[in-house]
Amino acid sequence: MADPPPELRTTPLHEEHVRLNARLVPFGGFAMPVQYPTGIRAEHQAVRDAAGLFDVSHMGEFSVTGPQALDLVSYVTTNDPARLKIGQAQYSAMCREDGGIVDDLVVYRMGEGEYRLVVNAANIEKDWAHITRFAGDFEAELYDESDGIALLALQGPLARDVLAPLTGADLDRIGFYHFAQAEVAGVPAVISRTGYTGEDGFELYVEAGDGPPVWRALLESEIAVTPAGLGARDTLRLEMGYALYGSDIDEGTTPLEARLGWLVRLDKGEFVGRGALERQKAEGVQRRLSGIRLTERGFPRPGHEVVFDQQVIGPVRSGTVSPTLGYGIATAYLPRAAEPGSPVRIVIRGREVQGEVARTPFYTEGSLRR
Predict the structure, then answer these.
(1) Domain CATH number, residue 349
(2) How many domains are contained in the chain?
(3) Is 226 domain-assigned?
(4) DSSP H or E run through 128
(5) Residue 263 within any structural domain of the chain
(6) CB–CB of 272/134 below 8 Å?
(7) Where on the phi/psi map is residue 15: left (φ > 0), alpha (ψ -120 to 50), or beta?
(8) pLDDT 10s digits, 340-361
(9) pTM above 0.70, yes or no
(10) Per-residue pLDDT tens for 273-311?
(11) CA separation for the pair 197, 238 (Å, rounded)
């Protein structure tokens, strides 16, 4: 595998991907594995049936500490971090003043007056600039931890059984969106019961230099663990209807339009974008991010035109043929009149392919729901 172009960054696990003959592609400014020789479908199915291992070290991590750390985090995010106990995490969003989504993120309460914000790789610089715009009004310190952390995602119904022999942590006591700090494979780690696949699993935060040995220890498990790349990560998350920043959500969409209104706590006090979101909620959204299920054979891709009520209403935001379900699935912003079961068409290679509005998640049999 050739070295990545000089403008692309690499994760601490880069040499592991090269050793495994991964196909590397640019993503968020990083050279990332899109798939391994096993192929996307096999990697996808391994996560649904057993266990898959992802390198997500390209994600950014910001530390926020100090007497007013909570106040700053609350001001720049839409959810309410005051609800978090130490050892708990929260999915949230950051918005502009007009309600547009700057990024979606996970907020961790690491200790008293200590938080970690986990942001998308392509948005690290933008998010940092956004937060620091407001940080001067709070007695809090910011630190960009991103370069010092390797992040591994072990996902699948057998993830717990894979991880258990490598740690002294009681994994059964770590609830969904909770975390513990303990050793994994002999090194300090944050063990977070979170993920982006709809399956049970853990995300492991370790020091950058500890990433490769932890990666190898997991792959050497007596239970088969399949390395998985961005391709499988995308099909898995789309089957669950999980939004991807830059595709389903961006600065031109609001959480209310993206069906992420549950992330918006208008009653918590002032935060960036609150006024705009309050007005939009009162007026009602005119469009909503919706699922589409093809009822004819076709492969929907981002950018394909979507036709509803005889009008082109915008592009497919995310689309694929579901490896688990066997038919085309997609997301798009549809008018309020579009309800589950409503007919919709996607223009694929010049032909209108029939489909219908569908509830998400498309896939409902993941181990998180069993």
Answers:
(1) 2.40.30.110
(2) 1
(3) no
(4) helix 124-135
(5) no
(6) yes
(7) alpha
(8) 999 999 999 999 999 999 999 9
(9) yes
(10) 999 999 999 999 999 999 999 999 999 999 999 999 999
(11) 8
